[in-house]
Amino acid sequence: MKTVLVIDGGGRGAALVDKYAQSRNVKKILAVPGNDLMQINVKKPVITYQHLKTTSIKEILRICKENKIDLVDVAQDNAVEAGLTDKLLAKGINVVGPTKRAGQIEWDKAWAREFMVKYEIPIPKFYVFRSTKAGINFIKKNQDLKWFVKASGLAAGKGVIPAPSAQEAIDAVKAMQKFGSAGETFLLEEWLVGEEFSAFALCDGKDFHIVGFAQDHKRVNDGDLGENTGGMGCVSSPMIVDKEIQKQVKKIFEKTINGLMVEGRPYKGVLYLGGIVVDSKVYVIEFNARWGDPEAQVLLPSIKNDFLSLSNEIAKGRLKKLKIKVDKKVRVAVAAVAKGYPVDYQLVKGKKILGIDKIIKSEVKVYGAGIKKANKDYVVSGGRVLYIVGDGKDVLEARGKAYKAMKLVNIEGNNLHYRTDIGARDVDRMQGLFESEHRSRRPERSQGRKK
Ligand code: AMP
Ligand code: GLY
User: Fold this and answer.
1) Closest residue by Cα to residue 271 from 289, 286, 254, 284
2) DSSP codes joined into one string, 104-140
3) Of the chain's two ends, which shows fewer C-beta atoms within 10 Å, N or C?
4) Does 438 have pLDDT greater than 80?
């Protein structure tokens, strides 16, 4: 019987813990840092190390040794950037997750865009800068364009600033400085207008298998209004991803996995393609070297294979021969967040979460994130507190279950916030009401250019 270590602390990590626990060969799961709700779905022991970070490499190596870990799943971006996979491999520890060099496709946006140009992957126009002055001069010469200003490095999900006017772009360029070394190099990207989706492929360095598609809802309020967040909910198998889009996505993964191999950076683990559909054509907004959060919460439960063997086959580079089975259900995840998130929810921290005992008895999955146990209560410890995931034959049934369960939850003092329109696009589509916005504009062929 095997012991698995998951490197993550949020809802994505909770979904992974749940999945590994379902493997008949797993006896125990450890998580760094993990969270206090991970045990809730799982009958096997789950041990968390909440005083550690995903980048606490020395301590993680010690945990592996002391617990004779059979597999480490490196699931979080900072850990990939810190080279945790490489350090584990160097010690002969079995690991699933990309190396630092393969993960550069996420942690260095300038490098990633140049890679995408080289391998002819469709992307928005972009310009790379290494000085604030050069960035501002460029914006002044291109007054009428709308930009996304992006720190090249990892900035805890805050490094992308939409700039619909020249003044906002200039302010965003100045703001890059506050990201420290992550913002020293930054990009100006053409603002594409279309509908977003994400696609996930398991990759073993040379072969890959697309396991699912999802659509995140990043803004904090209904109707895609308000601040950008880490994700307020998502739906699996979004209807925007039809056969034609799937074909384009497959081609992009082929070019990417092959390109990374040619560059001597074979990619092992799950690769996340963030795409946007403009005029029926897919453009890559970003690649991430990990599962999405909350996309993992809707896609992992659909995988039918024994998850430990699946991860082992990826680690060994034997994906080609493997049959990967996923169910046909649609899943909807809704995030329960602290009122004030993502701007300021300090006053909600430490408040009791009510109704956990009721939702775990209902017909949904619940994955914890910013949640802690305090005596016999659960209390808020982060902005995104937990996720409720409903499933069904279609989006209507899945979201019906998720929202029914959400009604059972609250945060003391009525401090719970959640979006009420997760999956609404597909509901409208099912009802024939939605006229896709993605047909609005066709950008010219993408070209990268260095400044
Ligand atoms: P990221 O932090 O890279 O996930 O980006 C956050 C969000 O910004 C994405 O999910 C998109 O909604 C948006 N975005 C980023 N780049 C572009 C772009 N070039 N055109 C349109 N939207 C973008
Ligand atoms: N759901 C967005 C992300 O994981 O980056």
Assistant:
1) 289
2) HHHH-HHHHHHHHHHTT-----EEEES-HHHHHHHHH
3) N
4) no
* Gap between the Cα atoms of 99 and 84, Å rounded: 8
User: What type of residue is 63?
Assistant: I
| Ligand 1 atom with minimal separation from the 109 CA | 3
Region class of 83: left (phi > 0), else alpha (psi between -120 and 50), else beta: left
Q: Is the pLDDT of residue 446 over 80?
A: no
Q: The pTM is what?
A: 0.94
Q: How far is the CA of 292 from the centre of ligand 2 (A)?
A: 4
Quick check: 307 and 377 in contact, CB under 8 A? no
Distance (Å) from CA 158 to ligand 2 centroid:
12
Q: What is the DSSP string of 76-94?
A: SHHHHHTTHHHHHHHTT--
E strands within 328-424? Answer: 330-338, 353-354, 365-368, 371-374, 377-380, 384-392, 410-411, 416-417
Please name each of the domains of the chain with its CATH number: 2-101 (3.40.50.20), 125-190 (3.30.1490.20), 196-315 (3.30.470.20), 330-434 (3.90.600.10)
The secondary element (H helix, E strand) that includes residue 28 is strand 26-33
- Starting from the CA of residue 159, give the closest ligand: 1
Instruction: Kindly state the percentage of the chain with pLDDT values over 70.
Output: 96
Distances (CA, A) of 332 to 198, 263, 341, 420: 14, 37, 21, 12
Statement: residue 444 has pLDDT above 50: no
Position 283, amino acid: Y
290 CA: nearest ligand 2 atom: 4
For the stretch 184-238, pLDDT in tens is: 899 999 999 999 999 999 999 999 999 999 999 999 999 999 998 989 999 999 9
Q: What's residue 447's pLDDT?
A: 43
273 lines ligand 1 (CB under 6 A): no
Q: Is the CB of 218 under 6 A from ligand 1?
A: yes
CA angle 373, 24, 315 (to 5 degrees): 90
Do 31 and 38 meet the contact criterion of CB atoms below 8 Å apart? yes
Q: Which residues are near ligand 2 (CB < 6 Å)? A: 216, 231, 288, 292-293, 295
β-strands 186-190, 147-151 pairing: antiparallel
**Ligand 2: which residue has its CA nearest to atom 3?**
292
Measured in angstroms, how far is the CA atom of residue 275 from the centroid of ligand 1? 9
Per-residue pLDDT, 366: 96
Q: Is the CB of 380 under 6 A from ligand 1?
A: no
